[in-house]
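Give me structure tokens for this 258-residue protein.
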Amino acid sequence: MLEPPPAPPPPPAAPLERLIFVQGGKVYGAHLGVYKTPAREDDSRHFPPNLYFRHEDFARAQEREGLKWTALRPDIVIGPSLGSAMNLGNLIGLYGTLCRETNTAMQFPGPEEAYRNTLVNITGTEVLGEAALWAAENNRDGAFNITNGDVFRWCHVWPRLAQWFGLDVGEPQPISLAERLHALRPVWARLAARDGLAEADPDRIAPGAFGDFIFHVRKDAIFDVTRARQAGFPGMTRRSDDVLLAHLDSMRARRLIP
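Here you go.
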């Protein structure tokens, strides 16, 4: 005798009330190399297409059905992940480790203008997670730029990163990390085997192409975070050099770098 088909699952206990989605610098045209800064949430869109525009337009179209939405806009997210094409924290860990292994200074791999003049901001995953909870619990509508809360120049942060690795800073020297890291794959494989690292494939940790873009940006690339602060979000009080150093500590704890 055939058993009856399983009963369909019950409907959700409550309707969906809010969409919270994550965008990024590309919403302002950061991928094009230059955009109006400090970027504000109500700035004009760049010339399309852009997938973020489609996401936001979809969310706006649901408003007449009563659905609320929040768009969080971090910039250069720093946090644990593997296999990501855009993990700058991991890339710094990989690059610094290879500098030490090859007995070279930890030279900034971009032009001097990007090193000394360009203002940058980044966003740690902790503050981004806090922002998502804040938006959900406080019913915050619309778009909000989210960063660590500060801006910096690489020339003020890079020496602390080099010191973490026990290296000299050297001088800015623009190179292609994508090309150099590919050439040093055998060096990383030997290092990973010798030190019992968790990942022998450097591309799984961080490919170099993202650094070739970020470290060569010659114009300020920063967000205005006033709107989130005025709306009551308290989390943007981090120093980005501390966030980057904590990320390196985390990479070492997870045996991604020695």
